[in-house]
Batch of 2 targets.
Target 1
Amino acid sequence: MAGIIVAVFWAILVSFLAVVLVRLAQTLRATTKLVADVTEQAVPLLADASATVRSAQTQLDKVDAIASDVQEVTSNASALSTTVASTFGGPLVKVAAFGYGVRQALGRRTAPEPEPEPARGRSSRRTLIVGRTVPSARGRKRERRNARGQKD
């Protein structure tokens, strides 16, 4: 009787292990199919990604070349402006100053110089600028006007 019980348990155990092995085989087949499908789809995607990266690298190389050309043009323009400023800047300032002096001299010849105002109580301070007398800010109060021309 003990032999029959052991044989029955043995048969149940073998049946249970057979079911587990069949399910494990189905799972392995499904996993193998899934890996094959992923491999089929991943290889073209990786090829496309690689082509995209190569294209981006080519474009970056072109942009780098353009940026270096722009930097060279900028430095050349800076050198040119410095050269022009040093070549023409000094003489132009001298010509402008000479012209201003000539205008001032001709203006003095044609227009008589106004009489200075008499001092009011306090000594009036005056400042001499290029041959003209300008009243100081302390001597008189000025009406201030805003940007629209109205009194403040």
Target 2
Amino acid sequence: MQLKPLSRFFLFSSLAASALGTSTMASAAFLDDSKATVEARNFYMNRDFRQSGAPQSKADEWAQGFILKMESGYTDGPIGFGVDALGLLGVKLDSSPDRSGTGVLQRDSSGQPSDDYGTAGLTAKAKVSNTTLHVGTLQPIIPVVMRNDSRLLPSIYRGAWLQSKEVDGLTLDVGMLDRTSYRDSSDYEEMAVFASGARNIVLGSTKTSDEFLFAGGKYQFMPELTGSYYYGALDGIYKQHNTQLVHIMPIGDNQSFKTDLRYVRSTDDGGSNVDNDAFGALFTYKIGGHGFTGGYQTLSGDTGFAYISGGDNMLVNLLQINDFGNEDEKSWQVRYDYDFAAAGIPGLSLMTRYVSGDNVNLAGGGEGKEWERDTDIAYVVQSGPLKNVGMKVRNATVRSNFGSDINETRLILSYTLALW
């Protein structure tokens, strides 16, 4: 008998919980290796819509978030067991229905922002040698499925994830997800493909899926060279093959040249028209505190780039607002980074970049063009009573002949406290 994805998930959960319950919970390693932190994140975001006839003049919200993480160690024995817990809480400080929609706060169908919202999750885990199994709440950051942490609270997933590091330099991953909780939601929902804008992705009767399968690995061929391959499939919607090659070449004292090449092939899985090839390349020269980057990204096929809605992706031109992943789009990037530690101010950093895209195949005909300019300034207090307090200002400008014209500013104040 074949189990449905949801049934499989609860079966895995029950097995892991049973094993955990029969283990020696008083194990010294289980307690001594445990840790807990709480991050307080204050987040303000203003998005000003500049295009003519915009349905909303601006989105403007301010909120306080709390992210509680508790991780146990593993019990003694040939198989070690443990449990992790995650708690997310967002509290409204300022918003209104006519200014909501930033993704910072949860809101109802009428646009009314919630006074507070949150999610909690447990993860059972087991470890044999250098192989671990996690079942429950997950926050994956692998090429085919990536959580999004660009707002008040991160998006999370539910499922099972097996990771092995038995071979030196090799990491293998395999797993299944059945639900996601968006960054501005209190609920777990089935997963959907991001299909807005000029991606021209058309879905059939299958709009969402309760099964995302992933498998792949990363191998460090030598200290300077790392390669990876991952497969991901959102059941009934799309399949994806993701490859990446990263080489870092030391040049001299405080100098290096990094090459980052990425290729992704996406096809339909019976319930959509997904058909896309995406190639991206980034080249970064670092000298002292300076970083100079140039990049190019090109997409081809019958649709734009496909990935799970609410998450992030591995496109090289994924920026603060856009990812330049529309049908047939070609885009290039220039970027500059500076770490002020080189000038005697540790903790202070600057990033600014510009990406221009064109050749977008618009559904109504014609060529779409867009550009985005981002600037981040961040500082983490290095000492004193405010040590580890982080402050970041993020500013972005987007202009497009087929989408929204946006001026956006985000102000983020954060502090992480170790509870034990």
